[in-house]
Write a structure and sequence with these properties.
The chain is mostly helical. The protein has helices at residues 2-41, 73-87, 90-103, 111-126, 128-132, 142-151. The chain is elongated, with a radius of gyration of 23 Å. The termini are far apart.
Length: 152
């Protein structure tokens, strides 16, 4: 009998703490995502120092090609590699990604996101099993994680 009383007492003390923990587990990620999204929308992604703030609702460059801001090198590379993946195969695109990063080390910080994008595109083009067969250690395992994410 004493055991059941002790057990109920312990549960009673854990109840509010557990509820607070669950609430934080649900609310904290939402707050972090929202604050991160707001931070990203306030960053000057255009590369022009004359643009002090570029927001997500800024549509000045949508008007046409003559008004378009120059694209970032990593975006140009990603689009070129995605085209190559469609026209040739993911192996060729991954080889060219590695060569681009070797030639231009500043692209290294974008390597994983480009490789993940290639992995997702490879699943769409070749299916998960065949896409995974092209995996290689370019940018660690980012291509494989892109394949896995697209397959899930």
């Amino acid at each position: 009998m004493k055991h059941s009383t002790t057990q109920q007492t312990r549960r009673g003390h854990r109840g509010p703490a557990r509820q607070l923990g669950r609430t934080l587990a649900l609310v904290l990620p939402v707050v972090l995502v929202l604050s991160g999204t707001l931070a990203v929308t306030r960053v000057n992604w255009s590369g022009n120092s004359s643009d002090s703030v570029l927001t997500a609702t800024d549509v000045t460059s949508v008007g046409g090609a003559k008004n378009a801001a120059p694209r970032a090198p990593q975006d140009v590379l990603r689009d070129r590699l995605l085209t190559e993946l469609q026209e040739k195969n993911p192996g060729v695109a991954l080889t060219h990604l590695q060569q681009a990063v070797d030639e231009r080390p500043s692209l290294g910080r974008h390597c994983a996101s480009i490789a993940r994008a290639l992995g997702r595109a490879a699943v769409r083009a070749y299916g998960p099993n065949r896409a995974q067969s092209f995996a290689r250690p370019v940018c660690d395992t980012a291509f494989a994680s892109g394949v896995a994410a697209a397959h899930s």
